[in-house]
Amino acid sequence: MSKNDKIEYKSLISKLKTDLDVIYEGNEKLIYSRYNDIKELMMNAQQAFMSGKFPSSAKLFRQVAKSIHELYFKIEKQGSYNNRNTLNDLNGKEWLRHTKSWIVVDGKPSDIPKEIKDHPASFPPELIEYFIEFFTKKEGWVFDPFMGIGSTAIACLNLGRNCWGTEINLKYFNYATKRIAKKKNSLKILDDLSCEIFNNDCRDVLNLHKQNNFPPIDFCITSPPYWNILETSRGGVKSTHKKRIEDGLDEKYSESPNDIGNISNYKDYLKEMEVIFNDIFRILKNDGYLIIVVQNIRPKGGLMIPIAWDLAKLLSTTYKLRQEFIWCQNQKQLGIWGYPKTYVSNVHHHYCLVLQK
Predict the structure, then answer these.
(1) Coil/strand/helix, residue 293
(2) Domain locations in the chain as residue ranges
(3) Residue 78 and residue 93: Cα distance in Å, rounded?
């Protein structure tokens, strides 16, 4: 930080202490690091605007606003913690923040190294952290049966939770294992947290739980394959899906006949989902929560298949269906589907089904 930056930073700290109700103890480093990041982002946004690059400028200014809001939330005084809270470590204001029924999360470039780009449908750790901090306490146990390249595990390590999961694809399992080791090293986590992934079919969950003497899980969060949508052509324009093929990236999860994403019959797919989540019900603690991130899909034939709604209805015979939550993505590429005759939307939202044992 330059001399002028330090003067600006000290001025900011003084202003915050004078005018705002914020917490400083333990947050000095956070404010210091975010200050430079936000300032650089602001400069890039201004430069784009002055250059006439209005779409890029608008995107950057949205990121600036979001970063400032997140920083303020982290340092704002949140009030006292209620000892009757058996669900999480949040106080009233923090709890309130999580009750809004939607969130916009696009992920950060730092979350997407080359090996993660190879996975056709990974989700950002930031999204998973949002749910984990609401549905668990510190050192709680989280399970993900479709671990992929390990986003749930990274979120757990960031928040101090124990985690285990399964991933049937050996390549993604290896990616996740390396990613976890790197994260543990960066956070200087030794043996105080358990974080294990098994290269197994998630239908082995009961055996794995018993063999490893895991405790009942506090929370399960996962995103299963959206049926066989990755097998489906996306039409005539150059979609993200087609670009992935051109770049030599994976267009679907695997070729394994045991992979849920390779089931061709929709009713068979739903039956397998029911079996998997009913097994998870047995290892979930009483009153524990399950979140399934899933989309309704529209194959090339044109009729929407309501996976989220069908799955919610099916599992509500075992679980209590508590709520739906919407995850929105604001920076995905738009495709001109159906033009000029048929309405076809760009689906940039996912349903997060909230179920409870």
Answers:
(1) strand
(2) 3-75, 92-356
(3) 6
